[in-house]
Amino acid sequence: MASLEATQRKLRRFSKLRGKPVAAGEFWDIVAITAADEKQELAYRQQLSKKLKRKELPLGVQYHVFVDPAGAKIGNGGSTLCALRCLEKLYGDKWNSFTILLIHSGGYSQRLPSASALGKIFTALPLGNPIYQMLELKLAMYIDFPPHMNPGILVTCADDIELYSIGEFEYIKFDKPGFTALAHPSSVKVGTTHGVFVLDPLNSLKHRDLEYRCCHRFLHKPSIEEMHQFNAVCRPGNFCQQEFARGDTAYLQLDSEYVYTDSVFYMDHKSAKKLLAFYEEIGTLNCEIDAYGDFLQALGPGATIEYTRNTSNVTKEESELVDMRQRIFHLLKGTSLNVVVLNNSKFYHIGTTEEYLFHFTSESSLKSELGFQSIAFSILPDIPECSRKASCIIQSILDLRCSVAPGSIVEYSRLGPDVFVGEKCFISNSYIITKAVVPAYSFVCSLSLKVNGHLAYSTMAFGVQDNLKNNVKTLLDVKLLQFFGVSFLSCLDIWNLKITEELFSGNKTHLSLWTARIFPVCSSLSESVITSLKMLDAIKNNSPFSLNSYKLFSIEEMLAYKDVEDMIAYREQIFLEISINKKQSDLEIP
Fold it and tell me: What does each C-alpha distance from 227 to 111, 190, 222, 264 come to in angstroms?
């Protein structure tokens, strides 16, 4: 795998920078992470501070968390504008000479709820010592960018990874005015869920690993017909690779048609200032702006205004949206979009529970290229090598007699002697000390809560394939929701819960598993996990388990009451215990 070597080199280079001051121009001047609300902002600040204390990040860099204003959702485009204003407030004219990495991490991660409380960018990876989280991986993968970048901002999302390989003496330059985006070869089908570049024709007959191209126009989540209509589809034949790299790009054979899809993009300081001036002028945003769909579609000589009226990809059609898009279009029209084509590259999205399970426990190319470990910074029984490979244990302590079936992930947890974890489970932040069976395909994640000034715990438990975002408008339609493959109505019956408006928190016209008050609040972490496992067990065996006597929270409420300090302390405790154990083991080795 050509890019394996390149990826490992970046990881080694980053590892050397962890906990050490960086030289001027060697690394980012500023790393900024966006947060959706003040609760999330606090959680991110606390984790960043711990990381810096533990020397897990390069020093001498300004790390910031920028929170979206309270009120309407503003999307990652709105968050970008808001971040620009924060930079201006903090640095005045100084930021015109900075290289800045802006990571969008403001979502509530409903498709990977283990990241909901502490953030996608702080999600653990089975790699490194101490454990890497998504933040470190991002910093490692982009380590070659800052020295070859003019002052400006690189915009990326917290839940994707780009791996690429270029010539030994080549490097990616971000030195052109306007915007510059990375592009990856992908199947036409993948193009329908991404941004797609319509590139000017290539002068050369042969493709190289790294090409600088001009973009005629940018299409956001186009249909297959639109890709053909606007000449975005490339025909096979002149591609010199043996095959396309394999990522989310869905394995491409030589005879496949393909398109170039987006991932991260850079804007020079002048473009950033133009957007900031626009934001200052409008004052308050009341609609969701997409940094990709609404900024990039305005760029390139072929850009036209039609997309501003297309709201098919929009979650909520606010009255202001079309007007705001048109204003952004006129603001950015005529700005160039340069594209860095990486023909030997892969784009991976790991924002869902199923994607996590796949990339961490199966023989995925991401796992082999990044060198993901089956056991990362953990204490566990001496299980046979063949069983180890199929599961993934991250910063956890497992008893000698505990058993974890293939395809499962355990992170930041303690499991006692008589615990059996079924296949394809995801267990996070949990403590199971008594005898317990975790049914196959279970998702179990515990949160520390502060309720009326007292510490409490609640554990969300459901099926890994359950759709927490799926919502219905009325109580009559609750029967359409599914919990662990069973009608939610049947589950409520088994748990002895009545269907009333009180059963759901938040918006009463968006009823979902996310807002269902079904998870018991307990006084200890272990009791919380066991009680939620009994709920699952009752569904699996169709046997009654009454939740009537418990105080119940929805996941939405758990996040509102989360005690970040206690959750970090629990992880810290596990970290120290493993560190001491490892030191003792090292001393015992003659």
Answer: 29, 12, 6, 21
Tell the residue number behind the tokens 């999205």, with chain if given.
Answer: 349
Cα 449-451-456 angle, rounded to 5 deg? 45
H/E segment holding residue 71: none
What's the token pair of residue 357?
């399970």
Region for residue 55 given its phi and psi (left: phi exceeds 0; alpha: psi -120 to 50; beta: otherwise):
left
CA proximity to 472, closest of 518, 503, 442: 503
Tell me the pTM: 0.94
For the beta carbon of residue 449, count every other beta carbon within 10 angstroms. 24
Burial class of 414 by CB neighbour count within 10 A (0 to 12, 13 to 18, 19+): buried
Answer positive or negative: Cα dihedral of 134, 136, 142, 146: positive
Residues 439 and 532: their CA atoms lie apart, in Å, by 12
pLDDT of 390 reads 86
Whether the pLDDT of residue 34 is over 50: the answer is yes
What's the number of CA atoms in the CB half-sphere (13 Å) around residue 553? 25
The sign of the CA dihedral 292, 96, 82, 106 is positive
C-alpha separations of 132 from 129, 353, 578 in Å: 7, 18, 16
Give the position of tokens 């409380």.
117
What is the amino acid identity at position 257? E
Alpha helices in 18-131 (DSSP H): 38-53, 75-91
First-to-final CA distance of the chain: 37
The CB-side HSE value for 341 (13 A sphere, CA atoms) comes to: 21
The per-residue DSSP string of 205-271 comes to SS--SEEEEEEEEEEES--HHHHHHTT-PBPTTS--SSS---STT----TTS-EEEEEEEEEEEHHH
Flag whether pLDDT at 423 surpasses 60: yes
Q: In 230-378, where does DSSP find H-type helix? A: 269-282, 321-332, 353-361, 365-370
pLDDT grade, residue 204 (50/70/90)? Answer: confident
Alpha-carbon Rg for the chain, nearest whole angstrom, is 24
**Whether 471 contacts 511, CB under 8 Å:** yes
Phi-psi region of 182 (alpha: psi -120 to 50; beta: other; left: phi over 0): beta
pLDDT at 116: 95
- E strands present in 79-209: 99-104, 152-157, 160-164, 179-187, 195-199
157, 104 Cβ separation under 8 angstroms: yes
Residues in the chain: 590
Q: Are 531 and 518 in contact (CB under 8 A)?
A: no
Q: Find residue 460's DSSP bridge partners.
A: 445
C-alpha span between 378 and 381 (Å, rounded): 10
**Pairing mode, if any, of strands 436-438 and 431-432?**
unpaired
3-state secondary structure of 317: coil
| Mean pLDDT, the chain, integer | 92
Q: Looking at this protein, which amino acid is placed at residue 63?
A: Y
Phi-psi region of 67 (alpha: psi -120 to 50; beta: other; left: phi over 0): beta
SS3 49: helix
